[in-house]
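Sample entry (298 residues):
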Amino acid sequence: MNLKLKKKKGSLEYDNIAYLLIAPSYLIYLLFILIPIGWTVIMSFTDFNLREYRFIGFTNYFNMFTDSVFLKSLWNTIRYSLMTIPVTIVLALFLAILLNQKIKARGFFRTLFYLPNIFSMVAVAMAWLYLYDTNSGIINKVLNDLGLPDVGWVSDAGTAMISVALLSIWNSTGYNMVLFLSGLQGIPDYLYEAASIDGATRIRKFFAITMPMLAPTTFFVFVMSCIQSFQIFGQVLILTNGGPLNATTTIAHQIYRNGFEYYKMGYASAQAVILMVIILIITVINMKAGKGGDNDLN
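Predicted structure, serialized as tokens:
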């Protein structure tokens, strides 16, 4: 097969076979990404309820910002992000630095911390639901043995979001740890050797070498964590189903409820569009503020 570029009238043109080879990827992207996004945007301007629909303009969007439950879900999503992202990143970085040292059973511990990421979220959430059980959960039994009262981990509005956040931190820390490990192993040893010769302490090396060189990795982890936190759904559905009193409902959870419980597909589509816009804005801001993750070490 000849896949070389052909020069024709001052422009570059691929052979037809090249277009044929890349066509499946573009077709999949078109069918499963672009068309669904376009259809969602169109449906957001209707009152589609699985049987019939009519065009209602921006009514869904106006109703959304007078909907106290949606506004509550927006705040809950932001609160969840603030609770999980910093803790996950700091904990993952700490574990990565620790497991990048020459210690015994290093491979075992790396695998152990990464394991939660490969489990099904439904299975994990069900297991944690038993741990959180007020009457027979292991956590409350331990508290009782210490002389402390039971805690309604997922039934109390004050602790429900914390319970969801703890599960997410446990589940995602290992994945971020692996990313930080790859970043740490890409830092040249001679930088640390030169710093040692100059008399730099470990703390000085960390802030002067490790952190600047990890900037691209940290930036990637932060951006992906932001995106994932705004898409939080599985943990909420299994542990609390948005309760109690909408204390843990999130934007993604509201999209699910409006679309598949109340059959307000048009309204759910408008919420999905708003979620997509929020994630896009956050990503763009992160890209601008983080300068694409460039490190500052020259």
